[in-house]
Amino acid sequence: MRHAIIFSLLFGSVALNAQQFKQLTKIKLSEKLEVSQVAWVSLNSDTLLDVVVTGKNQAGDVKIIALENEAGVNLFERLSFYAEISEGRFLLTDVNNDNQIDLLAATGNNVKSFLSRGDFTFTTTEVYLPTQILNAITGDLNRDGVLELITFENVLNEPHIRIYERVAGQFELRSDTTGISVTDFKLFDLNQDNFTDLIVSGTNSDGQPVLQQWKNNDRFQFTKTSLATPVNGKLSLLDFNADGFFDLWAISFNESENPVHVEWLNESGELKFNTEAEGIVPAQLFSGNSDADGLTDQWIFGGLDNKKINHILTATDTIKLDTAGVVVIQPGDFDRDGNLDFLQVLDSADGTWIKLFRNTLEVKDNRPKGASFSFAISTFNRTFIYWAPASDESTATASLTYDVWLGTNSETLISPSFSRNHSRRSIVEHGNVYSNNHKIITGLTDNRYYYLIQTVDNAFNGSYDVCTGGVLPCFDLTRKTVQACKGNEVELKSEGVAYWFSLSRGFLGQSDTYSYLPTKTDTVFSFIPQSNDCSKNKAWLINVNDGNQSENKTIYACAGTTIKLGIAPGWDSIRWLTNPIIADQDSISVLITQPQLIQVEASTGGCQLDISFDIKLSKPELSMNTTQFNIQLGESAQFNVATNAEIIQWTPPAGLSDVTIPNPIASPAQSTQYIIEVKDSIGCESTGSILVEVQETGFIPDLFTPNSDGNNDVLVVYGLTQASSFRFRIFNREGSVVYQTDNVSEAAASGWNGSTNGNAQPTGMYFWRVEGVLPNGESVLLNGNRNGSVFLMR
């Protein structure tokens, strides 16, 4: 096997001259720099890759120099400016989704974006983070199309790996892991489940090497596995055995602090140690096909025993490249002929130089083909895209990667690394979907989006025939719930040959039925593309039960009400142990008249469900010390009621200080029956009543002085407001009527002024009589009597 041969080639007898590569040009930079990074990136619209160099000048200031690719034959310095950042590291990514690759510098406590306008000019934006960023990468970890920022930071002298989600232009912390000082980290979907995983190399607090695989479980949760043969150094990914599961190789330091070259094979998502050999002190690693043989080569730059090593390990050869003065090497297809060229950055006494080497192989690595078939469906706020695997003359189909654009006519939702204008690659990277031929995007409103898919081979050539299509929104797709027993397969059936997707596992395959072995709750879809028809698409919510389920539920209900009892949908063999037994229904309605116990049993696969519903009557407590009060008109009474109810309501409200408390003050103008209604938290009621009787006993003075002095000039009746058959008369000593009225209001308001027929009556004793019936049925009395006397004094 190829990966078993290369170790002997690195230090063995094979030592070929680099005749495959010919120096094309040599350019001196305008200022001598201690170079931090160099990268191939398209900075204009001419289809060619340009070059960006960053580094510190002798004054310690970070400078960015951009060199333009001149027709694939030369480089010339086009732009040079001070970056105003602490270090020269940068990431290549489309920050603002304008289809231009930008420079993202995450150093110190700033995340500074240099936004390319596509004409060798930049605008800048800056976000502050309150820590010391030492290294960073970007990747979409939650499948929403927006790149997260993964950083290695120094927080109070402790190493942290942090993950930030970009929200409204700011970075919000979502995950924080301590204890690893990172040397290198890589992103890739290692198990092809549509979630981007993380590989971390570094050291622990004891200085020992650490190598971890972080399996992405969604929602920024990871299963972290320490790999056998841990190393601290540089990492790279390639598909050694062309199975589509990319493998890992490293040039690093082992636990004995010796430099080693190690490989781990990816076995369906799990990295397993394969081989180890002597290595070098690493500076740079790169994986890419340099000789059009379809196999990915290992580019190694570093040193050993004070000697620089600059090799390309192919399937059969070791190509030794120049090392004199070299500080950085960067492969890239400079002339767009399909073969990887490379440049070297050299440090010399007279300045900083760039040497450009052309790959002179006559055999060209032709570009891969685009996907011949694709479809996309949007449902449940998720967009599913599938395309048939593409092909290439040299790269194995399984090893191809894919780059996806998704958006509308006016908006980009997922940004790729190829130009939408001319389909050329903008950087030397794999596609953003990795080796998957499917993509799931979450959090998008179901809509008619559009997509583009570019195929990328292992020389980072992109297909010119980009696959394109529209997304079909399926708004009315229903989801059936299935109860599954952990470890037992669930048989799902579509209406024909369908494409199957799982939210947790990605694309499952193509068939008319699917046997799903669940390990956790998941949603599975079957899609049958039919132009604009969604009718044959299906969805299943698979709820996984870990063994038998037994539960006792206590339910409080109001007497006389009907309640619904139910179990989760999707169970089989359902039996409600009622009289009579009710079968094959996941819910029943019960009229509550008394406390009772209702049981239900069901099964699925090898799991049994047993639930007991203990139904108890609920009624709020309500007690009253007295249910009747007798007061005089104008007096009041305070109720004394105890209750544990949450809602209280008295009616009628007239005469009450507050109708929502248990003990209001009652001051009615007449006798009133007050009703109290109380409810508990589920609406069950209790009621009671209190009668307040208002005694209307009238009163009349025994003396009045009608002398027109404004004081006590009129004899009136007090304390009466209403009565039936009312009659009030006043007699003189001879028994003649001097005043009379049948109107209670008149007797109470105007009364007798001491005159009869306009003639003032003399001083003396007069006599009165009252008749009538009060509202409570009692006789009208004045001063407790039907008859009495009054003295008129002038």
Q: What strand line-up does the widest sheet have? A: 7-8-9-10-11-12
Residue ranges: pLDDT <50 for 5 or more in a row? 1-9, 11-17
What structural category do the secondary elements indicate? Answer: mainly beta
Q: What Rg do the Cα atoms give?
A: 45 Å
CATH classification class of the largest domain: Mainly Beta
Q: What CATH architecture of the largest domain would you give?
A: 7 Propeller
Amount of helix: under 10%
Strand content: over 45%
Number of helical segments with 4 or more residues: 2
Number of strands: 62
Write out the CATH superfamily name of the largest domain. YVTN repeat-like/Quinoprotein amine dehydrogenase
Oligomer: single chain
Counting structural domains, the number is: 6
| Average pLDDT for all residues | 94
Structure, described:
The structure is a single chain. The chain is mostly beta strands and 794 residues long. The strands form 16 sheets. It has a six-stranded antiparallel β-sheet, with no helix packed on it. 39% of the residues are buried. Residues 1-9 and 11-17 have low confidence and may be disordered.
Kindly list the characteristics that best describe this protein:
794 residues, 6 domains, mainly beta, six-stranded antiparallel beta sheet, Methylamine Dehydrogenase, Chain H
